[in-house]
Amino acid sequence: MIKRATLAALVICLLVLAIPGLAQAGGELTVLSSSAEMDFPYSLTFDISAESDVDITDIRLHYRVDRMEHAQITSEIYLEFTPSTLVVTGWVWDMRMGGGLPPGSSVDYWWTVSDADGTRVETETAKIEIEDRRYDWQSIIEGEVTLYWYEGSNAFSEELMTATQGALARLAENTGAELENPVSIYIYANAQDLRGSMIFAQEWTGGVAFTRYGIIAIGISPGNTDWGKRVIAHELTHLVIHQVTFNPYNDLPTWLDEGLAMTAEGELEPGFVSVLNEARQENQLISVRSLTSPFSAYAEESILAYAQSHKLVEYLINEYGRDKMFELLNTFRQGSGYDEALNRVYGFDMDGLDALWKASLEGAVR
User: Fold this and answer.
1) How many domains does the chain have?
2) H or E stretch including 311?
3) pLDDT confidence of 2, banded at 50, 70, 90?
4) Helix axes 322-333, 299-320, angle to 10 degrees
5) Which domain holds residue 186?
6) Which residues have CB under 8 Å from 72's CB, separation 6+?
7) CA-CA 20 to 30 A from 186: which of 57, 199, 257, 282?
């Protein structure tokens, strides 16, 4: 009985395979190769080759940039090609269309491929690291900070790392804000090298914080460390404050964001003090409400805005203390409006702050 049953089952299987439409494909849908290559900072090229025993009809690239997001965002690119049993194709992400990616960032990507039989294959997720290969980078690590550099001695990098740790300590002491995620700092040998890593760099750009990526890039020559330390403190503060207040509802007012970064540098430099004194004497100070918006592109107005922001934040910290400033940052993290946050923490709105800090300037700015 067992032998007869086995023979019958074999006959049935052969009959099923012989029926048109039920026959299994002789080959498989296969992704032969997949790659991604960065032409930093201009483009990222994704390539794929695939084959099947029937025409391949659909290929899609899926990618996700590794950065702080309010919701996980996956981009999908539909590739146009002529259906065939063997397809070699790709897609170029032109960074000039969107501003580029900083060194040290990364992109996860995968493919889905379908053929005329309805077979669908999804590749495993791969990662490409965005690297500026123009230079031979060295690195040092301390705590949550990794510092990269390519020109200068070990003493140079260690001096900058010490300044970085000092800036973090001062920020925590003044505001209670601390790093929530690791940070990478790329030290270019000069501003020209730095601007070469960016798509839309302004000619005056000397440092930039890519806050959503946890990355800072600055142009510092080994002979200009004093300036470099101030810029590190400034950009690092932007990054930390962004981590602490990250929310999907509202950004910080510009005076608070820039004021915290300016106070992290230390005392206000003489040029800023001079512009501030002149504006105060001529009754040309900018209102706090106006300082919530991006600062002017005109140099003198911008200098005044930065100087006022420094004094505004200094006033709040000196008058009301560290805990109140940290409470203000947490209130903004909840998505509060500007007036609402100030009222909740300090008991006055932007107009009230404007009157109070201007009164505090009398005799204080020299």
Assistant:
1) 3
2) helix 299-320
3) very low
4) 120
5) 132-245
6) 64
7) 257
